[in-house]
Amino acid sequence: MLKRPEEITIKFNEILDGHLKKIVSGEIEVFPEIHEIAGLMCIHPTHLSNTIKEVTGKAPCDVCNEKTIAAAKKLLSDPGCTIREVALRLTFEPSNFTKYFKRHTKRNTFSIQEFYF
Questions:
Q1: Could you tell me which of 77, 85, 84 has the C-alpha nearest to residue 111?
Q2: Is the distance from CB of 58 to CB of 52 less than 8 angstroms?
Q3: How far apart are the first and last CA of the chain?
Q4: CA distance 57 to 62
Q5: How far apart are CA 27 and CA 25, in angstroms?
Q6: Residue 64: CB partners within 8 Å, gap ≥ 6?
Q7: Which of 12, 61, 66, 111 is the most buried (most CB within 10 A)?
Q8: What is the pTM (predicted TM-score) of this model?
Q9: What are phi and psi of 42, to 5 degrees?
C-alpha cells in the first residue's frame, strides 16, 4: 500500500501528463499552475509543492520542465515537424522555445533534429 506522499506524487504526475497531452494535441493552450493542480487534488498548493519535493527531490516546476522537454524531444524526432511547429504546439514563442530547450538540455533544437535524421 502506498503512503500518502507517494499517492500525491502519482496523482500530480497523472494530472501533469494529462495536461501535457492536451497541450500537444491542441485541446488546451495553457500549462496548469501549481495552485490549479492542488485544487484538482483538494490539497493546499504548499503541501503539494513540499510533498513533490520530498518524494522526488525536485520542485514541481522541475518535474514539469522535464516532462515538457521529453515531449519536445518526441515532437522534434518527427521529420514532418519543424522547430517552430513544436514551439507553438507547446505554447512557446519559437525564439523563447529554443532558449528554454537549450537551458534545460545544454543542446540546441537543431542538434536534436540532426540526431534523429
A1: 77
A2: yes
A3: 45
A4: 10
A5: 6
A6: 16, 31
A7: 12
A8: 0.86
A9: 60, 40
